[in-house]
Automatic annotation (TrEMBL):
One Pfam family matching this protein: PHP_C
Protein name per its UniProtKB record: PHP domain-containing protein
SMART domains: POLIIIAc
PANTHER family reported for this sequence: EXONUCLEASE, POLYMERASE_HISTIDINOL PHOSPHATASE N-TERMINAL DOMAIN-CONTAINING PROTEIN
Origin species: Pseudodesulfovibrio cashew
Length: 202
C-alpha cells in the first residue's frame, strides 16, 4: 500500500489545500491512503469521516505535534493527547496510548525533530524523504536511520495540491485503520516509496 503520511489541509495556516481537494485528487494520483497531519490541530475531524472513502482511498488523521525540541508526526489515538508537551512528555504519553511517533524532517533548518531525540527508544521511524527537504537533508536522515537501526518513511509534506502524493510510504502489510498504521510503523513494515513523477524537479 502507498500512503502519504504527511499532508496538511487548510486547517493548518500554512496550507491552501482543502480536505475536499485532497479527497478528490489522492486516489487518481495512485495513492491507497492519505494521513492528514495538521499542525497541532484535529479540526479536520469535523470535516471528514476517517476510514475508507467511496473511491477506496483510506483517509486517516494524525498530527504534526510542535515541541521545543522540534516537530513530530503522531499517528493513532491522537485525540487524547494533551497539548503543549515537550518532546519527552510526548514520548511518555505515547507509551500509554495506541500511537506511534515519527521524527519529522530531522535535518531541515526549519522546525526539525531534535536529532538527540531521534532514537529507537523514542520514535517508531524517521522521515528520510520529505517533499520540502534538500537532498542533503534526506541523505543525513538516511545515514542516521542506518546507524541507529530506525525504520524509514517518506512524506510529501504537502501544502498544495501539486505536492500531494509526491513522496509516499510503501507498507508491506495491509493498513485498514489507524491501529494498523501504528502497528506497521512500530514493526518497521514500511519503506519510502518511489517518488511519483510529479515530484521530479521539485
Amino acid at each position: 500500500m502507498l500512503i502519504d503520511l504527511h499532508v496538511h489541509s487548510d486547517n493548518s495556516p500554512c496550507s491552501c489545500m482543502s480536505v475536499a481537494e485532497i479527497l478528490a485528487e489522492a486516489r487518481s494520483m495512485g495513492l491507497d491512503g492519505v494521513c492528514v497531519t495538521d499542525h497541532d490541530s484535529l479540526a479536520v475531524l469535523a470535516q471528514i469521516e476517517e476510514g475508507f472513502q467511496p473511491d477506496g482511498l483510506l483517509l486517516l488523521v494524525g498530527m504534526e505535534y510542535s515541541t521545543p525540541q522540534g516537530d513530530y508526526l503522531v499517528y493513532g489515538d491522537v485525540r487524547s493527547l494533551p497539548s503543549g508537551m515537550d518532546a519527552y512528555g510526548l514520548f511518555s504519553a505515547i507509551k500509554e496510548r495506541d500511537c506511534a511517533v515519527v521524527a519529522a524532517h530531522p535535518f531541515r533548518a526549519w522546525r526539525p525533530s531534535d536529532i538527540a531525540c531521534v532514537t529507537c527508544e523514542n520514535v517508531a521511524a524517521i522521515e528520510v524523504r520529505n517533499g520540502r527537504n534538500s537532498l542533503r537533508d534526506d541523505r543525513l536522515a538516511e545515514k542516521h536511520a542506518a546507524i541507529n537501526g530506525l525504520p524509514r518513511v517518506a512524506g510529501s509534506d504537502a501544502h498544495c495540491i501539486h505536492e500531494l502524493g509526491c513522496f509516499p510510504t510503501r507498507f508491506t502489510v495491509p493498513v485498514t485503520s489507524s491501529s494498523d498504521l501504528v502497528r506497521a510503523l512500530k514493526n518497521g513494515q514500511c519503506e519510502p516509496g518511489e517518488a511519483f513523477p510529479l515530484a521530479v524537479g521539485l
